[in-house]
Amino acid sequence: MHLLDPQAQAELSAWQQKMQRPPSTLNRFTRHLQTRFNALLPEKVHLAITAAIKQMVRGVLFGSTYTTGRPRLNLPLAEREAAVRTRIRYYRATATVEGAATGAAGFLVGLTDFPLLLGLKLKLLFDIAALYGYDVKDYTERLFLLHIFQLAFSSQHTRNEVYRRVADWETYRHTLPTDVHQFDWRTFQQEYRDYIDLAKMAQLVPVIGAAVGAVANYKLIEQLGDTAMNCYRLRQLAGS
């Protein structure tokens, strides 16, 4: 078991409260708005996003797409977290430039931002896992990365459910299916699509696309990094 410094403990406590809030009226309204917005989008946009997310999930589950360094063992938690923050800043800067470039290039090129950003997010998670000392060659560790994604980019209702699994991961991991094909990637990709649609679709609009792409990517990477840190803090405290 590792002890957190006061600032990290305060950040974790605030995050835990956020993850366990019941869905608000605003959450429900936003979800309704996203549903209506999705209905207005061209089918090729939906197909492109769905295909990108499906391939991402397969890459994580089978571990064939991403490479990462060896798990960092026997490091003080403060040192681990300093390294994690450095990686988050690096990926955040990269995603910001990429979002601005694809957003400025117009509709068709803007579509390529989705798989590019997904790739950056997944590589960031693999790096964070290694920095906290976890081996992503373990199938259950790769599933943990998908749970981090769900917490970061899902509706509040889904967050409530996924948080309970993450908070008791050592018990939950023993109930996971041995067949990776049983993972519910359909629900995963729909939640992710719904979450990012309002933030990212404006990136495809001429003139404002570059600014929207840069800001959206910056915030999405920052949110994912924050979620990952708190998920691994929970595990460090539990000693798992």
From TrEMBL:
InterPro entries the UniProt entry points to: EcsC
Protein's name in the database: EcsC family protein
Lineage: Bacteria, Pseudomonadati, Bacteroidota, Cytophagia, Cytophagales
Pfam families: EcsC
